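User: Hand in any protein.

Assistant:
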Amino acid sequence: MEADDNEYYHDNAYYEDSYNDDSYHDNVLESTLHYCVLPVVGQVTAVFLKLFGLAAIVSILNQLQLEKLTFIVDTLLGILCAFLFYQSSTLFIVFLVVISYAVLIFSSSSGKCGAAILLINLAFVFICELLVVAPEQWHQIRGTIILLLMKTTSVGFDIDAGVVDPPSLLLFSGYSLSPVSLVFGPFVTLPDYKKSKLAIFDRQVFISICSSLFLAYLSVLVSSCILPTFIDPSSHTLIRTYLTALSFRTSHYFVSYTSQVSALIGGFQHSEK
């Protein structure tokens, strides 16, 4: 009789543990869905609507083949894009473009235009980061500032190498502030920017946009919702470190795929190289 009682107890304990495990996993999945997946998808979609919407406007206007108009619109939409994402920090972004063009004008015939723009921009960055802009505010715009530094400096070095002629103010501002690549990138050269105004969309571009958009959503969900559920404080340090690094890596993939979608919509199609 005692053996039967023990067997009955162990069977019940097994089924109770199984039930608790199933209930635990159901609760984890439900909480992850409601408190992470849905909010993250909503926030990312709001960002995409602003970013890709502006890129789509640029692309539509490109079809009109009105060069000066598209440069003006790119500049205005870029300022709007910066304001939507960075609010008052937009002033630092616009000021960097202005001083870069001023340096370009005065040094374009010296053969050292690239170096001059680079030095002035680096001075601007150090002054803003160390003396002017609050650390939280600077952290928000740092990526865009680096992109602008790369863009403006590349124009200077291309002028020195004879690859491009000194651009007009409209061309330079449109290239630098284009909403297509202002926030997430990618970095593009001035000749690539001019080529984007002649882009023709086809089925392959549309497929690339859809696939990259799907991968962007997948990457941010893996980084923000899926991997963190596996990071157990009681697990081995190497496992926690690996999962944390993988989460950071997939967040980088999110930025990369987002920039690719924006670039494809804006006319920066795959290079033949």
Observations:
- DSSP finds nine helices and no strands in the chain.
- Residues 216 and 254 are 5 Å apart (CA to CA).
- The radius of gyration is 25 Å.
- The mean pLDDT is 85.
